[in-house]
Amino acid sequence: MFKIVWDKPHNGVTLTMSSAGEALAIAPRPVFWEELDLLGLNHMGWTYPHADAPLLWACDRRYFYCGVLVMEVKGGNLYDDPEIVLTPEGKNIILTPIDIEALRDANAETMFLIEHEAMEFINSVYRRYKGITKASETNPDIDFQALAARLEKKTGEKQVVVKEDCDSFDIMPESEANAQGKGAVLASKIDMFIASFSGGKDSQVLLDLVSRVVPSTDFSVIYSNTGYELPTSLELYKITEDYYKKIYPELKFLTSENHQSIMYYWDKMGSPSRMHRWCCAVMKTAPLYRLLKEEAGLGKQPSVLVFEGVRAEESERRSQYNRTGKGVKHNNVINARPIFEWNATEIYLYILLHDLPYNDAYRKGLARVGCSICPFSSEWSEHVVMKKYPECIQGFVDELYAKTAEIGIINDATKRQYIKEGKWKLRAGGKTSNTEGSSVHFITTQPDFQAVVKHPKEDILKWLVPVGAISIISRTDTDIVGSLKYEKDTFQFTIKYDSDNFTITFSNVPNDPIFHSLLKRAIYKATYCVHCEVCEVECPTGALSVVPIVTVNKKKCVHCHKCLTFKDRGCVMANSINISESINKNNTKMATSGIDRYSTFGMREKWVNEFFSGYENFFQGGNQLGTKMVPACINWFRECEILDQKDKVITPFGLACAPIYPDNQTLIWELLWVNLAYNSQIVNFYTANVPFNRAFSKPEILAMLKETFPDIAEATLGNPLGALCNMFGIGEETIVGDTLQQGLIKAKGRSVETVMRAPYNDVSYKTVAYSLFRYAESKNRRSLTVSEFFSDSQTEGIYREFGLDRPVFERILRTLQEERNHVLNVQLNLGLDNINLREDISSADIIKMML
Ligand code: SF4
Ligand code: SF4
């Protein structure tokens, strides 16, 4: 929050708002004698006492004494010691501890300001949310927010609940409340206030600040024991509980933990990685919300306000958060972050100046105290943990070592290297998971939906309940016939059991991607569920319980699908194994790389206009692209083949298009669209899969995308879909979207409501010729049939590209037969539908001949 400068005479730091003095770019942390011993400074000529107070400061890995750089530490990892580089000023020095009283004097005013700012924030958040709780408690017969909503509907004017004197509440128009200077109490009724405690320095400060503001009877402290805890964190939790219980005897301390050990999930789900960071959800979030559900005793997830010690400085991702956020981690949770803007030095100053207990691991050299092993931890952190707390990390390292065999590493030195360099943190595949032989294969045969499941972990009938109400029509030892109601329709299904395996078939299901996706998710859950608890806490009604076995209370389930849609594949375990099980009719899988290559920038007409009118210097400053647009533009141009694959120069195809473009933009966009259908994964997906004449919402297309690219996260797939919609034009007409009718967008403001393709019968005969030759080249044959383009299983070619009607296509074929270049001949009479393309020319020749 404040700038930090050295207080050299006192070997301290000073927080300041003044521009005088050189502000430090990195917030220093205090360094204790234990860390210096770990680094071996006691054998390198340094003399220092074993004092309680810190001895010097570190900015990252540079150490400063009285504001002077004395040492730099480089390298170090799980197995290797770091290199110590002493500066001339750092040779043979005698350190005296930091003078805490001088530190207090230098920072009393600034710390008072930030503490009180944070406490005011806590107070205002607490009072606002407590307000609405009180509103319903004061007069439980009146639901003020419901009344406000009703009045708003009636008057058409925004109404708010405000707190009047004497703890009473009133409803008035928002404009009037503003005029009277009255703040609205918020709409969310809070069942519990929580201070989240992790054993780290930030949550220590957070707890102290909350305890100074919120009555101790009104909040609880929850410690999440993830199973990765350092012994010092467990000790600190006990010390902290004793410390605050002495001051606030009624303050409640609770611990949440998963019903299974962390090692159980390492075995089942594979080691966590940056991509599969299941451990936060499984070991921390789910047990926390489960505990809250138990504590609240409401039979469902309570509404909770969590004060947490998250700080913007911790990571780029966290810096994007707001100080309060609703539904960030869970629908029923409001997160409040009082110390969001504090820097690390301010945190340490608060602890030192208030003489609070803190985690002993900071004294050993850890800059952040969290889990003993983590895909996001630094090599230095692993070094410290291995040196000081080997019993906490060795078991996980042994497990990583054992799992290297499963990914084909057999040499001991390579195994060690793999672990030392943290390559395990980059795991994307599922080879290290243990599915115990469970597997599922989806067979996409319209109009039926079928899945073959081997060794399922759970009863499929239970997991179908969240999709829709089910009824059993008949049942034998090997067969079940039932029906499932989804939205307004009821679908019949059969399940055929064969020892421990089953095949489930839904007959005549509509080609509705969301329904298909929900069915798949339910089947994934039945196949792989290891009862990790995560989806249970998503259930808002309390219908779902997964421990010790899955039960879904049919009376309570409202088919909201939250337990199915919270995660790709609807299941943490299924997501973590990350093995693609979708096969299409040709038993081939789509390539999955390179789809997310445009950020969310579509290929804009403006870019193409500028390029064709000045391609010589387009990428040398002759464009109006923003910096982030340039890579997207390059990718689009290469995929539509107007830009060379290596150099940023126009291609022969582009050169042929450029002179035509000013007079016939539609023709050129038709050709570009054909090229994109072959080269761009998102356009290829779109032309191959999205039917004509039906408006699809973005979530529907996203569900289809997910089926084609099951290994890519939905969030990632949202980018190319956004780019495609941008190319079609949101709130503006474009050639490809509107003239060619390939993306007719209905939008509210900038938000896309639906996208629809419509048949485009005005396609040029030149484009048809080009498309036919491209298709023939991809199939490596020159004899084609008209019917193959209109076959249900077709994913390429002129019909998938433009949706033109068959009679229109046949008419164009006849035109091409008569055209002076005679690029093809056709036989369309007497039941024949043959197309024979000229053997001696290519699609590139079509461009030369016809443009
Ligand atoms: S989250 Fe709960 S209510 Fe919603 S579908 Fe799942 S079990 Fe039913
Ligand atoms: S179905 Fe739910 S409880 Fe079971 S493994 Fe998947 S996410 Fe966990």
Notes on the structure:
The chain has 851 residues and is α+β, with helices and mostly antiparallel strands. 39% of the residues lie in helices and 17% in strands. It contains 31 helices and 29 strands. The strands form eight sheets. A seven-stranded mixed beta sheet has the order 18-19-20-21-17-16-24, covered by helices on one side. It has a six-stranded mixed beta sheet with strand order 12-11-10-13-15-14. Strands 3-4-5-6-7 form a five-stranded antiparallel beta sheet. β1 and β2 (12-16) form a beta hairpin. α12 (379-388) crosses α13 (390-403), α24 (698-708) packs across α25 (714-728) and α27 (765-779) crosses α30. The longest helix is centred in the first third of the chain and has 39 residues, at 100-138. The protein is globular and about 100 Å long. The model is unreliable at 579-593 (pLDDT under 50). The structure holds iron/sulfur cluster (SF4) (2 copies). Residues 466, 538-539, 541, 543-544, 552, 557-563 line the site of one iron/sulfur cluster.
